[in-house]
Amino acid sequence: MKRLLRHIALGVLLTGVASTAAVGAAVQDDPNLPKVGDDPAKCLNLPDRPDLIVRAYNFKSHEGQVKYVLYGDKAEDFLAKGKRLFKLEVPVKEEGTEVCISLPRTGNFALGAFHDINGNGKVNVPPDGGGFSNNPKIVFSPPSFKKAVFTVGPGVNRIEVEMRYLFR
Fold it and tell me: From the CA atom positions of the chain, what is the Rg in Å?
């Protein structure tokens, strides 16, 4: 798991979402990880590594942070404490947020995006909300892994996550 984490590289698209200095500092300082890309059109474009561009939209408020949490291909790991592959928090912007993650391999993944409106680092329902890959309906519990899993192939892959809230 630690090896996988070391090989996940993050690039934040410079589309007004966040700066590489703020979010990419840890990646930039580690010589074993690739540098953060500075061209949003190319993402990171690393050899033999697929890129995943995630766009979250439909925010209730443009305040707070959105936390992206990536899980691997094991259903039992989905949303389980300590089983995530990767986590990133970025400020919410009016136009939505967009991040790019350079993955270590192709395959199946699931992703959750959680909007912390007041920035307290906790999920407060209401007012906080969230969404998942494939945009499954969220009724009284999170979706199953089967409903959230998506496949990443070679090259650049894109997914969109619609943010949902208990009350609008």
Answer: 15
